[in-house]
Amino acid sequence: MATQISPMDDEARLPAYVAAGERAAASLNNRGPIRFTVDRRLHPDIVATYHEVGLYIFEQVIGPEELTELRAGIKDLIERLPVHRDAKTDARGRPAHGADFETPFVLWSKPLGDPLGGTSFAGGRHAVKMFEPTPAPGLPAEVPFSLVGPLQFSDAALRTYGHPELLRVAAAINGEDFVPFNEAVIVKMPGQGASFAWHQDGMTHWDHPSWDPLIHGFNFMVQLYGSTAANGLWFVPGSHRDGKADLKKIISRSGQLLPGAVPLVSKPGDVAISNRQLVHGSFPNTSNEPRITLNMGFHRRSAVENVETRSMYGEPQVYDRRWVDERAALIGYGISARRLWFPEETPFVYRPHDVAGLPFEWNDDARSAIREYHRFDILI
Known about the structure:
The protein is 29% helix and 17% strand. The chain contains ten helices and 14 strands. The strands form three sheets. The protein has an eight-stranded mixed sheet with strand order 1-2-10-7-12-5-4-3. Strands 6-11-8-9 form a four-stranded antiparallel sheet. Helix 5 packs across helix 8.
């Protein structure tokens, strides 16, 4: 019987693994600008590579001005978080974002910890706990590592959500009637950022009679400061095509440094599209560089409408048409908010809203309407 690799061994092997991963990432050929054909379709070379690898890096999507605004908006969001999970004020004593919400929107972790591995969260998809290095003294007992529903707090994030080229990609992959999954800000500060244990995002449709590699949707990952092998996401290319992985068995044989995995290496302003069925995860951020990512996920409407499933916290849930349409309102508000800020752009036309003649205008009433909108996230 093979000797199991201990978490301590994994931590010791990580520097060499990271160096090898950087070389492997450079050879994947899964990056480049967003390109469309003359008939406005997503370029077939991009589609083919995305279907083969499961992840494609669109380079320099977010321009310098928008990136500066997005960084400032997310910085303000982070600074307005509760000073700890039970606090009602931020570090400066101001009322904290979401302090009076019924639905939590901040996930917390001890510095360099793994709060999800080996738990029942999101259907227990984070099967095995990641190694947890010892953080430097003097750090807070807990730090935020994921913030859901950020579009209600940051107009800059909402404007990026309405980016016309990204929405065109979403329509190309998931159809013109695509719908949202959720949005989140992933926060991995230097010497503090928590890990995300290896997992696949998909939960509901592994045994679906119409299963295919795209059925659980995808995430866009907008890179505010870039992503490195040391602080970023790692993934196993092509694993989205192989069905549900037995991660406990795989990790028992290989340890947490999965063979064949490569890192997402990207620059500020790049946006990666990642299939939610990919085996992926990230290590604790022991590096001296931050990784802050705005995640924006989308589904096929046919994969979610009237589906019975469970929320991230295990409660039964049915996504009827009213639920789905309510959640898709954020697309309309994102397009409107962007049109106000970038009037020279040609805005994306979201087919369901256009056909129904639904007007969406970003204003104070709309801001009130999307309060706690993350309650309507669509998790499959």
